[in-house]
Amino acid sequence: MSGHSHWAGIKHKKEATDQRRGKVFSKLLALIAAAAKDEPNPDFNPRLRTAVSKAKDVGVPADNIDRAIKRASEQAEGLEELVFEAYGPGGAAILIEAISNNRNRAVQEVKTILRDHRGKWAETGSVQWAFEKKDGEWQAKFPQELADDTEREKLASLLEALEDNDDVQSVATNITFPS
At the topology level of CATH, where does 6-74 sit? Predict the structure, then answer.
């Protein structure tokens, strides 16, 4: 009965949970660092205040939040906020927000994900007009549905792959998925 201990099962579950938690923490800390670049005091920076409250809601330790703010104010080049535009399966408009310390790497990673999932890179301004920012999140002005189930599954796969990327903060699309 080798490999069937109770502890081994717990260890694998904990490892998977910790990996998911770590990914969420790193994205939130990058968001905090990007917001703290201009003004490191949350009392005078509403964007930083919102990012810190999101991080605290998820359970990011206060020490990690403080380190991210301190690192952002000390770094000269720091993190860069990027917005990418793309089209996905079924002609879905996709808006991708990323924070990266290397623009070229982030662009290539997003392009690779798009290529692997049958998406297309779009020129600046060709997709963003169809979205508006409400409460810090991109919302589609003209939401649509895909009639084809296979196209909807391909789009869901593409969106999941984009969200799994470490640099990508958020992904918005004009396609609504049925509940």
Answer: Arc Repressor Mutant, subunit A (1.10.10)
* Alpha-carbon torsion, ordered 54, 66, 161, 116, to 10 deg: 140
The whole-model pTM stands at 0.71
Residues 80-95: tens digit of each pLDDT: 889 999 999 988 999 9
CATH number of 80-173: 3.30.70.980
The pLDDT of residue 101: 84
CB 90 within 8 A of CB 146: yes
CA distances from 162 to 54, 119, 142, 170 (A): 21, 11, 22, 9
Domain ranges of the chain: 6-74, 80-173
- The amino acid occupying position 98 is A
Residue 140, classed as helix, strand or coil, is strand
3-state DSSP call for residue 129?
helix
